[in-house]
Amino acid sequence: MIISILIIPLLGGIILLLSSKRPRWHFTVNFLVSSASLIAAVIVLTQTVSGRILTLQIGNWPAPFGITLVADLLSSVMVLLTAIIGWAVAIYANKYVNAHQAGEGFFALMQLMLFGIYGAFLTGDMFNLYVWFEVLLIASFSLMTLGSTSRQTEGAFKYVLLNLVASAFFLVGIGLLYGVAGTLNMADLARKAAMMENTIVLQTVALIFMVSFGIKAAVFPLYFWLPASYHTAPIPVAAIFAGLLTKVGVYALIRVFSLIFIHDTNFTHTILLIVAGLTMLSGVIGAAAQNDFRRILSFHIISQIGYMIMGLALFTPLAVAGAVFYIIHHIIVKSNLFLIAGIVERIHGSFDVSRLGDVYKKWPLLALLFFIPAFSLAGIPPLSGFWAKLTVIKAGLDIRQFAIVFVALGVGLLTIFSMTKIWAQVFWKEQPITKEHRNTGNNPVWMELIPVAFLALLTIIIGLLAGPVFEISNRAAEQLLNHKPYIEAVLGGGR
Amino acid sequence: MRSLILNTALRFIAPIMFLFSFFLLVRGHNNPGGGFIAGLVAAAAITLYTLSSGVSYGRRLLQIDARLLTGSGLLLALISGIPAITSGQSFMTGLWLEKTIIVIGKLGTPILFDAGVFMVVLGITSNIIFELMEHN
Fold it and tell me: What percent of chain B has pLDDT over 90?
């Protein structure tokens, strides 16, 4: 069953690649492929939600030697979230991708990027994780430069360079790890790392991985590439980047720092905790200085990632569950905000908040759809962000880490300030009339409102059904902290 | 920049390169070689020919559109994993025919996969060369 998650987007990407002469069909094909992925992801989640761990040994090579795919609860949840965002963007993209871009391979690259993201979430092998990173990065490089304006090229250049540095670090780390442990299978590594006596090399590797995944996840002080590049990509691409790509880094951090590098949590997780606090602060302060709709949102990605890292760094079952909950909440909300920014731009022809205005008066429905994810992000109850923040803060209070709790609460307040700024400037304020700037005269269409409404609805559902969602996060956290079933599922040779 | 020496030499070298790339492709499963390196050798032949005669001749030598070649290669590589699923085994498990064939040896799904990789590498490399030379 796991393999269908990977085969569907790959097959879709190939079909789209082969039919580049018929770009008019691409939208429909892409939508069907995304729907199929969504169905497959739901099926996998229903199989793993009870705590079962699905594994697949590619090519029938037994576990520590071959490539293993593992779907535990965290992986399945991440896969489902990816499928949801892919599906929503597949509908949304109709208005934003013209036949020319489709012919250049927009949808094919999108499916191949999703293929890479699914692979990164499902793999059970460190080197294979590196390969999946490369798959999704190469597709994302091309997506980012599609259109090739000079601003895009500049943004993409920073993005490519920093990510290549991260990959190089990752590769060095993998080499060292293989040198000390003699294996790269994650389950086997967990087993061997727990028995290792000399942990100095292991600690070095842990720090190298922290830098590598830290760049990809955009944590302090390695985040500067993100606000410099995300706002240059086309909006449907930016929405996927914002929701998913940094979360691949966060996922990798959670995976290795809960499974492999846990021999000296006083050392590694304290660094993570400090990094988390600084990430939150610098992200939210950076956002306050911005005037571009997308750049404000980009900086908020950074500050929100701080909360997830905080959950991982506190490293109690509740805290890790909070981190998982936070990821679930954040992916849906953040992609949605980018999609809305795209709609506003299409109507008003600008991303600059000082030039925008009057959206509430003209399009109250759009304003409502913005209100839900924006104030969920800020942590207003009963929306999903409130429960996510509550969980990590409660976890911090439980183990008396008051400093980080204080930072988290302060950043929450500043986030409300930032969201209110967008709300007041873009939606409430009267639009200033200037000569050089005119509205485009476009109206929002259903094709773009439906995915936005769908994601907003999901935000509300997560908020109202916080209990069941928290229960899933909790089980995922239990699986992360209790390695025995994971190791047995992978090395026991079950299918 | 047409070079008589390169042009003449290629008439002999290019066929040998293609033959050698085919040789690398089929021996790849157990010996040094395989789809990737074979694809590179074939792409090198295409590149040399393009350098000596021009992009339009290079495209004609490749016979099919480079993008199409890449896509079909990916498809072939993906298909090579399917027989294992239908026979109830794990994806990508190598399945072999009983009989051996002269020169090629044993036939099985891995050679299908290698052929796919060959097409992808050849397609992408020639596409990059064509694009770069056209923009020059």
Answer: 40
Interior CA angle at A15 toward A14 and A18, to 5°? 85
d(CA A130, CA A74): 19
Instruction: Report the sign of the C-alpha dihedral through residues B86, B87, B92, B96, in that order.
Output: negative
Measured CA to CA, the distance from residue A65 to residue A369 in angstroms comes to 49
Chain B residues near residue A60 by CB distance under 8 angstroms: 84, 89-90, 93
**A20–B67 C-beta distance less than 8 A:** yes
Q: Please report, for chain A, how many H helices and E strands are present, in that order.
A: 22, 2
What residue spans of chain B are helical by DSSP H? 4-27, 35-53, 55-62, 66-79, 82-86, 109-135
Which positions ≥6 away from A174 have C-beta within 8 Å?
A126, A127, A130, A184
B98/chain A closest Cα distance in angstroms = 19
CB A438 within 8 A of CB A286: no
Of A13, A14, A58, the CB nearest to B91: A58
Q: Mark yes or no for CB contact B91/A59 under 8 Å.
A: yes
Amino acid sitting at position A43: I
Instruction: Tell me which chain B residues have a C-beta less than 8 angstroms from the C-beta of A59.
Output: 84, 90-94
- Say if pTM beats, i.e. exceeds, 0.90: yes
Q: Which of B76, B78, B91, B120 to mutate to test binding with chain A, by most A CBs within 10 Å of its CB?
A: B91
Distance separating alpha carbons of residues A145 and A222, to the nearest angstrom:
22
Give the C-alpha distances (Å, rounded to integers) separating A320 from A82, A124, A149, A436, A468: 20, 20, 42, 50, 16
**Contact between residue A133 and residue A170 where contact means Cβ atoms under 8 Å apart:** yes
Task: Kindly tell me if the per-residue pLDDT of B100 is higher than 80.
Answer: no
pLDDT (0 to 100) of residue A436: 59
**Which residue in this structure is represented by tokens 């008003």?**
A348
- Residue B52: Cβ within 10 Å count: 21
Output the six-digit token pair for A175: 């080499």
Domain ranges within chain A, ordered by starting residue: 264-486
A303-359 confidence digits (pLDDT tens): 999 999 999 999 999 999 999 999 999 999 999 999 999 998 888 878 888 788 778
Chain segment A257-308, per-residue pLDDT in tens: 999 888 888 888 999 999 999 999 999 998 888 888 889 999 999 999 999 9
How many CA within 13 A on the CB side of residue A455? 37
* Beta strands at A54-57 and A68-71: parallel, antiparallel or unpaired: antiparallel
Q: Are B94 and B108 in contact (CB under 8 A)?
A: yes
CB atoms within 10 A of CB A454: 16
B71 contacts A17? CB cut-off 8 A: yes
Report the half-sphere exposure of B136 (CA within 13 A, side-chain side).
11
In the block, tokens 């969504």 appear at: A38
The answer to whether residues A259 and A200 touch, using CB atoms and an 8 Å cutoff, is no
3-state secondary structure of A482: coil
| Residue to test with chain B: of A20, A60, A111, A112, most B Cβ within 10 A | A60
Which amino acid makes up residue A280?
M
| A103 to chain B: closest CA residue | B67
Question: In this complex, do B91 and A56 lie within 8 Å of one another by their Cβ atoms?
Answer: yes
Which residues of chain B lie closer than 8 angstroms to A128, CB-CB?
Answer: none
Whether B39 and B120 have beta carbons less than 8 Å apart is answered as: yes
Determine the distance in angstroms separating the CA of B9 from the nearest CA of chain A, rounded to an integer: 35
> What are the residue boundaries of the structural domains of chain B, listed by start?
4-135
State the Cα–Cα distance between residues A181 and A83, nearest whole angstrom.
Answer: 35
Complex confidence, ipTM = 0.88
